[in-house]
Write a structure and sequence with these properties.
Elements (H helix, E strand, L loop, with lengths): L1 H20 L1 H7 L1 H18 L1 H4 L37 H37 L1 H16 L2 H12 L3 H27 L3 H8 L4 H37 L11 H8 L8 H28 L6
Helix pairs in contact: 1-9, 3-5, 3-12, 5-6, 5-8, 5-10, 5-12, 6-8, 7-8, 8-10, 9-10, 10-11, 10-12, 11-12
Length: about 300
């Protein structure tokens, strides 16, 4: 029986190594995946190097330079390539700095939600019975409440801040991961090598860590990547409504909120942050679609 277990696991490991070895070459062949990776890397680098790339302090106001148009329009200047907002703050610098909080909130919230959802999904799927009932009914309860309404209530009570926003977004999104991980775990735990490990007396924790988790992580990565995009949009929506990021911090959603009153006369104040959100979200989606095609075992090469 031990030989059967070792043979099954060895075969699985060889298959995985073969698939991951070709990831880079598949990425080069996938136009959308490669473009998505370039966009995500560019936005990440911009966020990390924001203090060096931005020409101005994003919170610095200059009423004498308020609502200057982009440089290619009449009255524009290269000192403010994308123009200024209603307080004279440089739009390009604010977009660069805004990438830090938008990406920080989006990625951190997904990591938090993923950890919670992974934990409860593995418990529900592997142990089943009472644990499965309690966790899945909790998941159903969360799904019964509209996410945006739940977030607005919590943020109104606790007050908007970056840590609170991450906690709220992560704490309300874990149910998606829990359901997916539970479903995958129910399938994996019935496979021969898992049964063999259980039969020779392997501890449950060891079985979960060594045999179950590696087989659900691929689907988890795909969903997590795609959810980064939706989380960035959620953060922007909450900031737009005034319950997300607050000044003097800057995020793309807050910039949209600040610029909505000037769309008719100074369109650039809200347009360029909107473009930044769109490009980033598309990049994450392209990368997530490529990861799905590569990692999803249901999709054949």
């Amino acid at each position: 029986m031990t030989t059967t277990l070792e043979t099954s696991q060895s075969s699985l490991n060889r298959k995985k190594k073969g698939r991951f070895k070709s990831l880079f070459f598949r990425l080069l062949k996938s136009k959308t995946g490669f473009v998505g990776l370039i966009i995500v890397l560019a936005m990440t680098i911009m966020a990390i190097l924001a203090p060096y790339l931005a020409m101005y302090d994003p919170a610095k106001t200059n009423i004498m330079s308020r609502l200057l148009p982009p440089f290619w329009l009449e009255g524009g200047t290269m000192e403010h390539p994308l123009g200024t907002d209603n307080l004279g703050r440089d739009v390009l610098s604010r977009i660069i700095y805004g990438s830090r909080i938008s990406l920080l909130v989006g990625i951190s919230a997904v990591i938090l939600a993923g950890i919670i959802g992974m934990f409860f999904g593995l418990i529900a799927g592997y142990y089943g019975k009472l644990w499965d009932f309690i966790i899945m009914r909790t998941v159903d309860s969360f799904l019964a409440i509209p996410n945006i309404l739940f977030m607005l209530i919590i943020l109104a009570v606790l007050g908007p801040s970056v840590p609170t926003l991450i906690l709220v977004l992560g704490g309300t999104s874990w149910v998606v991961y829990a359901r997916m991980v539970r479903s995958e775990t129910l399938s994996v735990k019935e496979r021969d090598y898992v049964r063999s490990a259980r039969a020779i007396g392997a501890k449950n924790f060891r079985i979960i860590a060594k045999y179950v988790l590696p087989n659900v992580i691929s689907s988890f990565i795909v969903i997590a990547t795609l959810n980064v995009a939706s989380t960035i949009i959620l953060e922007a929506s909450l900031s737009f409504l005034g319950l997300g990021i607050q000044s003097p911090d800057v995020s793309w959603g807050l910039m949209l909120s600040d610029g909505r009153e000037y769309l008719a006369t100074s369109w650039w104040v809200a347009t360029f942050p909107g473009i930044a959100i769109t490009v980033t979200v598309l990049g994450v989606i392209f990368l997530g679609d490529w990861l799905r095609d590569v990692l999803d075992p249901k999709i054949k090469d």
